Amino acid sequence: MLKELKMSKIINSQVISYLKTSPRNRIIIHQGKFDELAYLDIGVEFSKLLKPIVNTKHLSFKAQNLLNDLLLSFISKHLELGEILSLTNYGILFEKELNIDIIAMFDKYSKNLTLILDWQGEIENDILYYLDKQSNIKIDMNSINHLII
């Protein structure tokens, strides 16, 4: 069952204008959480799901299925933005053993709903750096529609 969320003043006209252009992907990236939204802490929740399967065969395949189920369970309804998925704490997604294609994940979920990303690292020229540039872990967002606010 989808939770109904009301839009507050924090979601400004820039976001609404962006979404009205009908972009291929509906991704809003910001640093810091919007108080009125509930965020899925991927690091905490996904690690709980992975714990029982960490030493099993086909970890990557099983992890993908668990992640998909987790993300689907956290979709909510916003009065102006429609269906949304608000995410934070992505570090676990960079684990090589899980073999998660983060851009593909963002692309998949942002086609049919608004993906709201609380990015806790650095952002420069549409590149999201996990923690900071020195970590050398980055996501190049140039190939996917998004709005950074």
What are the main properties of this structure?
single chain, alpha/beta, 3-stranded antiparallel beta sheet, 149 residues, 28% helix, 7-stranded mixed beta sheet, 4 helices, globular
Overview in brief:
The chain has helices spanning 13-20, 42-50, 59-73, 102-110; strands spanning 4-5, 27-30, 40-41, 76-78, 82-88, 114-118, 122-124, 127-129, 138-140, 147-148. It is an alpha/beta fold and 149 residues long.
What does this structure look like?
This protein is 28% helix and 23% strand. It is an alpha/beta fold and 149 residues long. It has one domain. Helix 2 (42-50) crosses helix 3. The two termini are 29 Å apart. Mean pLDDT is 88; it is low at 1-8.
What's the domain count?
Answer: 1
How far apart are the first and last residues' alpha carbons, in Å? Answer: 29 Å
Query: On the 0-100 scale, what is the average pLDDT?
Result: 88
Query: What portion of the residues fall into strands of 2 or more residues?
Result: 15-25%
Annotation field: number of helices: 4
Percent helix among the residues?
25-40%
Total beta strands: 10
What structural class do the secondary elements suggest? alpha/beta
**Largest sheet properties:** 7 strands, mixed
| Helix-strand sequence | EHEEHHEEHEEEEE
Shape summary: globular
Radius of gyration: 15 Å
Model regions low in confidence, pLDDT < 50 over at least 5 residues: 1-8
Secondary-structure map with pairings?
Elements: E1 4-5, H1 13-20, E2 27-30, E3 40-41, H2 42-50, H3 59-73, E4 76-78, E5 82-88, H4 102-110, E6 114-118, E7 122-124, E8 127-129, E9 138-140, E10 147-148
Parallel strand pairs: 1-4, 2-6, 2-10, 3-5, 5-6
Antiparallel strand pairs: 4-5, 7-8, 8-9
Helix pairs in contact: 2-3
